[in-house]
Amino acid sequence: MKTDSRSYEPMRIGLFCPTRAWPSRPLFFGVAALALLFATPLWAEEECMDCHDGAEDEVEFADGSKVVVGIDAKTWEASVHGGELSCSDCHHTINEYPHPTKPSEVMASVGDFQRNQAETCKRCHYAYYTRVLDGIHYKQHTEGSTKAPTCVGCHGAHEIRSLKGDPLEINHRCANCHTEIAEVYANSVHGRALVDHQDGDIPVCTDCHGAHDIADPNAASFHAESYQLCARCHGDEERMEKYGLNANVLTSYLEDFHGISNQLYAAGGGEPGRPMATCTDCHGIHDIQSFKNEGETVVVKQRVVEVCAKCHEGATPEFTDAWLSHYTPTFENAPLVWSIKWGYRILIPMIMLGLILHILLHLWRIRARR
Amino acid sequence: MKTTAKSTRIRKTGDGEWQVERFSPFRRVEHILTILIFVALVVTGFPQKFYESSWATGLIDFFGGLDQTRTIHRWAGIAFALSAVVHLGGIAIGVATRKMRLTLMPAPQDLRDAWNNLLYLLGYRDHPPKFPKFDYRQKFEYVGLILGGLVMLVSGFVLLFPIEFASLAPGELIPASRVMHSNEAVLALLVLVVWHLYGSHFSPDVFPMDKSVFTGYMTVKDLSHHHKLEYERLFPAGPPGANGKSGEAEALVSESENPDDGPEDEPFDPEENDPGDAEESETEQNETENVEGEAADALEAADALEAADALEAADALEAASDAKVEPSAPADT
Description:
Strand content of chain B: under 5%
Number of strands of chain B: 3
Oligomer: heterodimer
Distance between the termini of chain A: 92 Å
Number of helices of chain B: 14
Strand order of the largest sheet of chain A: 1-2
Number of strands of chain A: 2
Structural class of chain B: mainly alpha
CATH architecture of chain B: Up-down Bundle
Radius of gyration of chain B: 23 Å
CATH superfamily of chain B: Transmembrane di-heme cytochromes, Chain C
Order of helices and strands of chain B: EEHHHHHHHHEHHHHHH
CATH topology of chain B: Fumarate Reductase Cytochrome B subunit
CATH class of chain B: Mainly Alpha
Radius of gyration of chain A: 31 Å
Largest interface: A-B, 50 and 51 residues
Structural class of chain A: mainly alpha
Shape of chain B: elongated
Order of helices and strands of chain A: HHHHHEEHHHHHHHHHHHHHHHHHHH
Strand content of chain A: under 5%
């Protein structure tokens, strides 16, 4: 309960402001300076570091896996929690020496131990904890996996630091397990651009998959709604202009049959019975390449035919003309579509105006005759 | 919706009003089916067009999801195609066997009617022109339904079978069909809501509803008001029972007579006005007999004397109101 009382302290300070309650400010600051002089790191009070700093001892779990119990005091101090939390804040069941024995289900494996430790993180990081419960990694845990990461799996334990402004490190952490995909990504248009642009413009793993509530990427809904991930950047005119890209790609997709379908599935139109083409089906997922440098239109065209044929058996190059390649129909690039569109734009108002005038005239005549 | 010229039934209702059959039972069923199919297509099609609206997702949810909505839409479209085949096939057979009078076929006379009616509506004429069985407004809607329906069917089938279609025609026709399908649907619905609802429900002439397409019958009075040419064609010797012979109907159909030309109306040319007229002559004799026979049957049960009295009174009233539409009207207000 020690940590609980600690966490209420700031409120008491706020209610009874010491600078007012104390007889004089010099006295207050004097006492404060003295306190600082004798202040020592929180962990030191607990004397944990006497043994654990740099220790090489290992703890063995029931499944045979081992973990080194030693930590580096300097790394810990430099972490975001260093100086903020004491050892027993997280390891709150260890309060005496020799350490009490942990229950066997906790000690079954490293994974079980770490999942149990996540309950500790939850006490402060409740929102993230609950988000994780919606994620694929937690689902794997519930299905018996001990390899799926818990909090410390991605964030680290004693070396926790903020990854803001370090997109490469984010990818690196995912790559610990997802090695092959990380390599594919590194060779994609995004992966190569990330080397030069680490200002948040280039998507890293978590930008598309999320960090805590990672969705199952094999789910039909993930496929159907994935256009929204691409849309965040590729629908942003300002950002696209910076890289000389066309921000119209999104709207031209969304106005097409596949785009409309996926929007409706995303808006509650149920699970798609069969997948509808989305950005990744033509452009790739982790292996996205720029179409700009493809050069020959013939090559691009052949690629589109292959992509169409995945769902539309017997697709021919003529069939792929149905897709207007992200271009808004104009008189030049799609004269037929353009003329029909404009034909109706003129015809519908004209007909309706004529009919309404006829009706009004009829009503007027009946009135006038009476 | 065309009526065959085999026979034109007339009947007398319980309150002594004469009615003429306007739509055969087949056409009435066809109309109801068209309503059902049209509504099914609209409620499953428009959410796909206005996909960003909340009502669209609500409707799609109601049908159990997008896939189910599309399935319903496609089957309704196939039902519409079948009804179109039956309808157009029926016309083709009717024309081939010369048994059908194409009462809804637009003719140059309709343009003249439209012009004369416009002059009437604007106040330059005292009377509207004499309209045939279906006036130009109804023909416009019918032709719109046929042409629009064909556009919807063709473009719909292109969208349903894009691969097969692309093997026959340029691929650009597929997005073109989509634009066409989407816009034609809006046009069809707007015309229906504005024009059909006005013509059949909200127009003061028929308010609250012209029931003839459901009952199949229109009163002789309404026919003589709104479709004078058809009235004159069916009753060249005056309204049924006008001669007072025990209410025996005098529904004679004659093509040889030229209806009297009103001072404002264009000269009437039967050939021009009714494309099916020429084909009708052989069934004409037959038709007249049928009409007389059926009318007589209908009257058999009624007390002859009473019926005659009632009819005489009704007809006298109708004749008076017919003749004096203009002068009697101001007196009302």
